Input
Amino acid sequence: MTFDIRKSDTVFTADGAELGAATTLYVRPEANLGRGDFDQYLMVVSLEEGDEYYIPTNFVDARTSETGKVRLSLTSAEIEESNLKQRPPFIERGEANEEALADEPSAMEKEKEFVDRE
Output
């Protein structure tokens, strides 16, 4: 799966509840890929509650580039009933490759980019 998710994109559940902000992408080491576990996790931090969620990227449904909103295929009830606040063991053991999410360009950078193209 290709990721166009940016750092601080707002992550919403399938039923429209705001979960938090995207911060980091964790990738299982290549040697362990395809073991039946999820291979990539998006870390989402709730700024209101301070909770961290580790969302398997299989549950990332879409991202709207104009608004920076990420929608999951899980509802807020499904997330609360799951163990997605628990760090996956391979991350806990320090075996994950941590991939920083790109920062969203500022409005000034976007405007400069637009002017430079003209």
